[in-house]
Model the fold of this input.
Amino acid sequence: MANRSRRLLLCGIAFCLVAAGAVRAGDQPQWGQAYGRNMVSGETGLVDTFDPETGANIKWVAELGSETHATPIVAGGKVFIGTNNANPRDPKHKGDRGVLYCLDEKDGSLCWQLVVPKLRGESVDLYLDWPRSGICSPPTVEGDRVYAMTNRGEVVCLDINGLADGNDGPYKDEGRHMTPAKEDALEVGPLDADILWLFDVHAEVKTWPHDAAHSAILLDGDFLYLNTNNGVDNTHRANRAPDAPSLIVLDKKTGRLLAQDEEKMGRLVYHCTWSSPAMGEVNGRKLVFFGGGDGVVYAFQALKSAPAAGEVKTLKRVWKFDCDPDAPKVNIHDYKRNRKEGPTNIKSMIVFHDGRVYVTAGGDIWWGKEKAWLKCIDASQTGDITTTGQVWSYPVEKHCVSTPAVYQGLAFVADCGGFVHCVDAKTGKMYWKYDAGGDMWGSPLVADGKVYIGTRRRGFLVFAAGKEKKVISKIRLDSNMNATVTAANGTLYVTTMRKLYVVGL
Done:
């Protein structure tokens, strides 16, 4: 009888928690859903409005730098967000730096920070590591390990507890790493990051960085998949590393290079390789999907085992799909500043959902044509599927760097023309579009039956996630928003250029 009473009590507590909206889906340890990268969250009980001026529905606010382009990640009681050093948390770090904050999830207090000097090279410094751009990549967290891409194009494995619990190895040179080469190394402290291993992508695989490093690392077992940020030089008319890999695989335990592609995408990269990989299972086979800087979607066979010591495998291509086969394939840089004709590239992540791949592709924002599309591809085919793989193509308003969200038969996407679109995920038929009043670099997040998106004109919008166009709320932010909203543990994380708003009841 006592056991029955206990079960009834527990059931009653669970019912009350559900009724109060307190049941939470959990952490968000990487950008997008695991593997498929779909911008859909299982969180419920989320608020649909907040007020930055009055503080209504805001739990806490963290001051960031002057430019923040990264999406926040929430895991293990911590919040991770990349920014710059315009608002130093530690006075010993002076000047323009890339910074990754690790904040306490409860109140936003600083647990530790990774501080990285700017990359310096020849006379093209600005284009190797753009001033004030900070750390733009969202990290990926697993247990007590944080995998991140720095502004210098380095992959680092970090201890989630920082240096407060000692300097674990094998990497021990954090003081030198956080200091510009011509200055004396700084003394490390408990608020500094603990680097466990480091892999310098550009030095190790001979790529050429451009503007800012961006890679949301994909974790699969012991393997880390990431794009290399290989791009053009300061003239925007030459690729100095045309044959370097665009997609590589590292061992998560050691940082050892395990595999890379041999597609020579760099020869047709119009700007840079900023798209991060996704993963999915098709016909019993695990595939890695990658949006090349050449405007082609690739599917590679996922690694099943690590190669022998000293060996680097070649990723086996299963299929490829050219998003714009009629675009120029030679002398591509002759189309610089041409807004009507030119190459197509891919900046967003690929989304894999129900056997299909969804991708946005089109002309480059800064230098290319305005045309762009949301495309749906059949992922079950093999070979060159450019003429056979397209399920449908939907033209967006103008340029697009937004990763789509596929939810209950609908696909939501935002573009640089300032429009949010809702289309049928099976047919590409438009249900509605909405003029948001500003261009959007971030991606729409669908959570709790709502669509959340911010603009680069300080606007924040919440829509009903349905076939009918319904604006739930419009909010004025303190500054532009380039990041994507994160939902975790019953809370929304909204990042502007200068502040992180943690929003919930």
User: Anything to note?
Assistant: The two ends are 38 Å apart (CA to CA). The helical segments are 2-19, 125-128, 174-177, 201-205. Residues 1-24 have pLDDT under 50 and may be disordered.
